[in-house]
Amino acid sequence: MSVHTSELSAPAPPGRGAVRAGVALGLLAGCNAMVLLDESMVQIALPGMSQDLGLTPVGLGWVISAYLLAFGGLLLLGGRMGDLLGRRRVFLAGVALFTVAAALRGAATSGDFLIVVRALQGVGSALAAPSALALVLSMFGEGAPRKRAIAVYTAVGAASTAGGLLLAGMLSAVSSWRWVLLLNVPLGLLILLLAPLVVEETRPSRGRFDLPGALMSTLGAVGLVLGLTRAAEHPWTDVTVAGPAAAGVALLAVFIVIERGAQQPIVVLRLFDDRNRIWAYVGTFAVQGALIGTGFLLIQFFPQFAGYSPLLSAVALTPVTAAMISMSGAAVWLERRFGPRKLLLTGAVLLIVSNLWLSRLTPDFGYGEDVLPALLLFGCGMALCVVPSTILATSGLHSDEAGAASSVQNALQTVGASLGLAILVTAGSNASRGAEQALPAGAPAEEAAGHVFMESMSAGFVAGAGLAVAAFLATLFIRPSGAAAARTADS
């Protein structure tokens, strides 16, 4: 149950090596931004796709789901591949596949082709994302250097996501959806060009692939993500929701049994020997649901009640990113001073407050007084949750465990976001039905639709606050002694 002494502790290079390490960190953070940004760009491009390619609502759903299923299903395998084959090699392969698929989707001539290349993108993300974080862990030793690197990794991802959304909003207003989908291609090419020059390859671990474990983890994650994705559109009792979700949980249970007896497991079960890491994982899972509301709900609210364009809606959400970037740097100092537990508790409280604040929005809102303060609190809460939880989840690792730890962290974020969205949509749907039943007979259609949407949005933000409460409760089980251990490591 104690934190193990890390074997992943190469110091950050001094002098010219520090510059090279900084460039490498920027490229790895750029990969993180590329993966984070892509889903938002696809959401912006969906209306144009539907019109030009004749996609039905079901087809549009599969444009989203194909990526999520491949990404979520292969994350654990992708992290293990990096440990066994070399993290830079797997990282570059993932970025290359992602970039090629991003270019092909911009030239898609049919919905079926688009769905296939979206699945290929998901495979690329599953290889690149855990290897990118694992490479950051390999480059920077535990303590202050790694904590600063994690903060930079988080902040660059947030900044790039915001900038990309603004650019995507501009392109969607003046050009085709195809140009929106091509935005990630130059970044992917830049990473492929420069990363081999500045990112050192890691020594491959001796071992072999656990094929039964790989199969069970992939099928289990696919089933769980598929069920949760369907839950955003159908009742939880629907066979297309409950069936895949139940099968996914059962297959993941089989996966755990297999891993306990495997000589070379995909996920080293020692990762779960540390109590603080376990509760950091639980907090990470719950926090994702508390984070999903602003992007999903406000991006619908602004156009409907304020007449915002896609670009103006993206601008309206930038305070979240600005606050997150500012607080990410401060979070490293605060974590060293107060420990990760207090930061996580504070961040969860800020997410609770911001979600409840936004749940009280009305159609005649004022942006400066009704929305902006909540968004700033939201961004600060994100930073205070994401930075220390990542530090806790990736501390005390052996040299051959970084990929596995990174893949678990990414998998929890992906599944947590899917579950959070499903919970928010379910809460909103239930509130919508109640609002429709309470409407007086003969109410104007436009007024009725606005009232129903407001009730749905309010319920969604309340559900987000509930998930933040779950993250707060999970954080209570983290040992406060983690702060002392962190300060000792820094010294």
Describe the structure.
It is a single chain. The protein is an all-alpha fold and 491 residues long. Helix content is 81%, strand content 0%. Helix 4 crosses helix 14, helix 8 packs parallel to helix 14 and helix 10 packs antiparallel against helix 15.
Distance between the termini: 23 Å
What's the main sheet like?
none
- Shape by Cα distribution: globular
Number of strand elements = 0
Strand-and-helix sequence, N→C? Answer: HHHHHHHHHHHHHHHH
**Mean pLDDT score:** 83
Number of helices: 16
Strand-residue fraction?
A: under 5%
The radius of gyration is: 22 Å
What structural category arises from helix and sheet content?
mainly alpha
Q: What portion of residues is helical? A: over 70%
Name the poorly predicted regions: 1-14, 482-491
List the helices and strands and how they pair.
Elements: H1 16-53, H2 57-85, H3 87-106, H4 111-139, H5 144-174, H6 177-181, H7 184-198, H8 211-231, H9 239-261, H10 275-306, H11 310-338, H12 340-358, H13 367-393, H14 402-438, H15 445-475, H16 481-490
Helix pairs in contact: 1-2, 1-4, 1-5, 1-7, 2-3, 2-4, 2-8, 2-14, 3-4, 3-7, 4-5, 4-14, 5-11, 5-13, 8-9, 8-14, 10-11, 10-12, 10-13, 10-14, 10-15, 11-12, 11-13, 11-16, 12-13, 12-15, 14-15
